[in-house]
């Protein structure tokens, strides 16, 4: 397994295809979420993923301040492939995302919007809920923040 960290402009066509395929497989097909997966945020993000034999198996975005939230840098699109979920890849990709964000921006608060069922997962990485439940793309979410 290999960890990759690239800005959008650095991605090869094959890397971008692998990332988008996994995102569509999980968010659109598996979760039946009919929202625009291509939302204009990818170009302003650092893409962090884990691959195994050239297949993207875990992924997230590190977003510049102002892209997801006006006051905070953020992590978004956290996912692992359905077939590899029992391998601890979720924690590993979150650890990598936090590391990448801190390397690029220092010790700053980190914002994310978590699906309600995953709140406990994000709490293990130091995030706390900062909102009531809200609906995003038909799915219940919480706004969460990891303080410095």
How would you summarize this macromolecular structure in one to three sentences?
The protein is 27% helix and 34% strand. It is an alpha+beta fold. The protein has a single domain, classed as Aminopeptidase (3-Layer(aba) Sandwich).
Instruction: Examine the coordinates and then state which fold CATH places here, giving the name of the CATH topology.
Output: Aminopeptidase
- Give the end-to-end Cα distance, rounded to a whole number of Å: 30 Å
Count, helices: 3
**Molecular shape:** globular
Radius of gyration: 14 Å
Task: Characterize the biggest β-sheet.
Answer: 8 strands, mixed
Write structural notes for this entry:
The structure is a single chain. The protein is of the alpha+beta class. It has one domain: Aminopeptidase. The protein has three helices and eight strands, in the order βαβββαβαβββ. Strands 1, 2, 3, 4, 5, 6, 7 and 8 form an eight-stranded mixed β-sheet that branches. It is globular and about 40 Å long. The mean pLDDT is 91.
